[in-house]
Amino acid sequence: MDKLTTLAEAVASIPSGSHVALPGFPITRCAMAFAREVIRQGIKGLTLSQCVGAMDADMLVGGGAVVRLICGGGSLDKFGRLNCVNRGIEDGTLQAEEYSSLSVAFRYLAGSLGLPFMPIRSLQGSDLIRQIKERTGSDVADITDPFTGDNWLVLKPLLPDVSIQVVHTADAEGNAWIMGPRWDNVEQAKASKRTILIAEHVVSTEMIRQQAEKTVIPGLLVSHVVELPFSAHPTSCYREYDYDAKEIEKYVKATSTPESFKAYLDEYVYGVKDHWGYLEKVGGLKHLNTLKADPILGY
What we know:
By secondary structure, the protein is of the alpha/beta class. Helix content is about 35%, strand content about 20%. Strand 8 and strand 9 form a beta hairpin. The longest helix is centred in the middle third of the chain and has 13 residues, at about 100-115. The mean pLDDT is about 95.
């Protein structure tokens, strides 16, 4: 079944109030084109979950699309903090549920396996679990091991309405390859009701089948496939392109105040028609080609 569509159509399939799982890691393979389109379409009231908070989540929070964030901390790596997320927590407009990154991954794992809960040791005795229990006690519990009698902390599974996956290669049916680190992306896709793929390259199903062992997300989990080069810009995509330091620095500076971030959104989100307009805005192919990975060395 051919699931190829546009980014605008894929994003329009997500109702306000949905729970969306994001794929990014601070400034690596973030769903940036997706985030810009969500803001452009005015989707609101989202719950976001992400193993480590990243630039895509920060932009969505700053754009007013998010009311709740479930994550294991986060940053923009060497470029600084998640200013929009931090401001949302401080002014009370964002409900933030912070876990360890491992425990978020375990919650996706429980969801992917269809388990009612997932036991975990690493949170025991920490201030973090005390804070989690005070904030959202319904997502954690204690049980007795029926074999040993030991006490175990268990986590409620995460079951997003939709996961967004930025992938390297996919076919029109939604069978996808992710090169390099893939963190909890596969578990996110399996735990979610459906997955939207945003692919750097769409190839034939015959080509995918020739190297079937590379397929980490099967098409049966996927509702939409979008072919969109540089969809993670200004973050990086392994073996495709590096992060764009100047554009990330510009973003960080813009997030310092609500007023300056509004001006940023007016220019880079609302001020362009779509992803292609954004790419032209940041310098077009002449600039983007300076970020592309060497086809032999991969960086």
